[in-house]
Amino acid sequence: MKFNCEIDNIKTLKKGMKITLAINDKQTIEVMKNIYNFMDKPITVDLLIDEEKQIERMKQITPEQRKKIYGLLKDIATYTGDNKENIKEATKSSFIRATEYEDFSLSNCSKDLAGDYIEFLIRLCFEAGIPLKENPAEGLDNIESYLRICLEQKKCCVCGREGEEHHVDTIGMGRDRTKVDDSENRKMCLCREHHTEYHKIGRKNFEKKYHVYGVIYNN
What we know:
Oligomer: single chain
Helix content: 40-55%
Strand order of the largest sheet: 3-4-5
Protein name: HNH nuclease domain-containing protein
Structural class: mainly alpha
Radius of gyration: 24 Å
Low-confidence stretches: none
Shape: elongated
Pfam families: HNHc_6 (PF16784)
């Protein structure tokens, strides 16, 4: 028999894989009639993927992006004392005026729009001095753009607190930093605490732990 379904869960086992399928209510009875007698027995299944539908779905906002947005909105609401829904509508309006995007819904907007909206909210928080509960870098697709925003706003790319420019590509001992061209040197912005940790555990361990890295940035 043939029926439409969605993959609800995939679990890797020691031997093989377990795939859980989600079937809508209208098809449940019909499917059960056909497969009930084959419970716990080997069957052959053909999985046909609707390629166009999947490509379109991949372009839409991800659950991680949606979670990130609502986390940022909650941080703004906590800081301002306003309602989160009011904050969402106000920031969406400001975002639309500042960009070429039209009105959108967080339920089905594009992945690119969601990424730009996240950057907009992070920049807003940095400029207003709004403390962020979670690591600002978590859940971001365009991490490089975020790292440049941190350098521009002088905010730690790990925690969002006030930070200072750290040279990943070191200038060298005894050289006058004011006279050295560091335009091609990679940098990141770190607060005092994370700057100290960086030197303590080393670049590779730090980048692996926090998923941040140095970028070329000229202010």
